[in-house]
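INFO batch 0412 | record 1 of 1 | parsing
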Amino acid sequence: MKLLLYSHYFAPSIGGVETIVQSLASGLAELRSKEGTREFSVTLVTQTPRENFDDAALPFSVVRQPRLLELTKLVREADVLHLAGPALLPLILGMLARKPVVVEHHGFQVICPTGQLLIESKGEPCPGHFMAGRRAECWKCDPALGWLGAKRLWLLTFVRRWLCTRVRSNVMPTNWLREQLRLPRDTTIHHGLVPLRPAPETEVSSLDVPVIAFQGRLVSTKGAEILLEAAKALLAEGREFRIVIVGDGPERVRLEAQANQAPLTGRVQFTGRVAPAELETVLGGATAVVVPSLGGEVFGMVVAENMLRGLPVIASDLGSFVEVLGETGETFQKGSAGELARKLREVVWPPTSQRTTRDAARTRAELEFSLQKMTMAHAALYWRVTGDRDSP
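INFO prediction complete | emitting tokens
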């Protein structure tokens, strides 16, 4: 089967979508039939420049920044078109070519003009103005867009939603997102994780001070500031600890300035982006990982990956995080530094060992979020939408 996978962003760009797309394309390209032949011929199309990335090292073809005629030809030659998000041009081309189109939703673009489900002007989760019919509220969500930009995104949301009601399948990484988007012919396929080595089980008593880790882009939606506020409350109680913030982004300068003020001075380390091997070393020394996102999350790769490492995870109570964690982690009310501080007291300074919780989290991640499970579920879906057979 010829599979055309379209992702606007791809390596060397770094992000959750890029990681999932590469893992899925690699897994599908390596699937073999009983006779040993490839099940899928995979071509990935992206608008991301190659720079120094080695496309030839991948087990599938990569076409970067194609012109319209080239993209049209690729769509016509494909048996199935898979879109990582409701990208309008390839979505329309797929419809015109009468190809089976599968849209995998990595955001909220069909129910929110900005795709974040967050009121940017307030830094608060959106209660769902667009779907509730309060669509004029969307025009003033992000003042930086301006009147014309806000109206443009608002109109495009209607177009994306209408087109997605006519594709062969809408794929969601969580059942929670499925309930939010409310699209026909939908199915849930959890993201798959690259295998990681478990973090060492270091007791707090063996450390100079416990280490609380944050991992993610330093943007307003990720809520790193909530962690710093919670840290101030813990320091006021006389507790000692270090915070390691892994990641980079436009909020870094402001967050560093906040961390350099008393009482946080000297207790917060910003590592910037780190290579995968170094990331394991940095997080391997963590006592707990905090994921305080305010919105914009449809799955929670950081949550799932640190479950796989066996690290205690404390996450905000976003629906996607609650689903991924199950009963194996702690959640707190999004935006509440006070509740986060309380959860940190319980997790970082527990009266007894948390080994059972760590093992349960690791087992859940291995069973529910495996690469093989994700790959096989997508393969079965492609065969189903083409009508050739039920499964590979």
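INFO post-check: The mean pLDDT is 92.
INFO record closed
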